[in-house]
Amino acid sequence: MKKYIKNLTITELQEYLVSVGQPKYRAKQIFHEIFVGRINTFDEISNIPKALRQKLIEDFNLFSFKSTRTQHSSDGTIKFLFELNDGSAIESVLIPCEYTDEDKRNRRTLCVSSQAGCALDCSFCATGKLKFKRNLTASEIVDQVLAVEKQTRHKLTNIVFMGMGEPLLNYDNVKTAVEILTNPELQLIKKRKITISTSGVTPKIIKLADDNLPVKLALSLHAPEQELRKQLMPSAEKWKFDKLIESVEYYYKKTKTPITFEYILFEGLNDRAEDIKRLSKLAKRVPTKVNLIPFHTIEFTHPTGFAAGLKPASKGKIQWFRMELLKNGVQSFQRTSSGLDIDAACGQLALKSQVQIIQQ
What we know:
The protein has eleven helices and 14 strands. By secondary structure, the protein is of the alpha/beta class.
């Protein structure tokens, strides 16, 4: 069975070349043509022998997607639906720039997926309702980036692992994808322009620190204490709050990279004065910024139980919450709801467009 060549690191490609009687230096030539030249077939690699091109055709697939569909939001957000070669599907979101500063206005951020579906079933997230299908390969992660750049004809400046799935539960493939994307010879994405968002997989946060990947860490916090967090995120039962915060502290001590706390505000649950006090105390344990995120409806998944009762905090409450954090010396930002009209906002990725196409 053919493998996907983009699953290989440069070292692994060198090992393959040696195994078929080719010199190691060909690996850099091949990598350059794939990721910089953006070839469509191996036959386009003109600076390697024809016999090697034929061998690559026999042993590898170049692309991991069957098809791509897009939805365009009125605010400039674009949602991409990728059909994978095994029939699975994932979504990615190109997020328009929220800044007016001259030096930030050209920012183009892609929210990529790391799994097909998700096993964690967070009460506020539509993806969990799909259940877990499988991990994405490194090729399927990198191909999201390449496909979006090809379709939009613009280079991405930032990548966030905040799409479908828990990236730290697909650690090895995510790591390989990051190593490819940040390879200095390819210049796909600058170091520290990739953010990995996790629900709080404690042992993998520690591993991420030890491996010192050139990424930023964002923690989906959403509650400043164990019991409420467990209701919102069942995985908190396994990865307890105190140990989780200790792992975040360990990450900062090892990498010296500030942390982002992601915090969705729910009416009457985590938007009170006592929550501000607890969150402020947490945010001062390591250099931190807090991203305040509106809750976006997932009614189209027909939630039940605790999830059905979740309501978004008002805009006024979010603004008040942010100002109180700032008064307490905590750097905080209010995120926009990019792509809300196409179900592309935070927590809404659930292949809804694919379901609609099938039903039609």
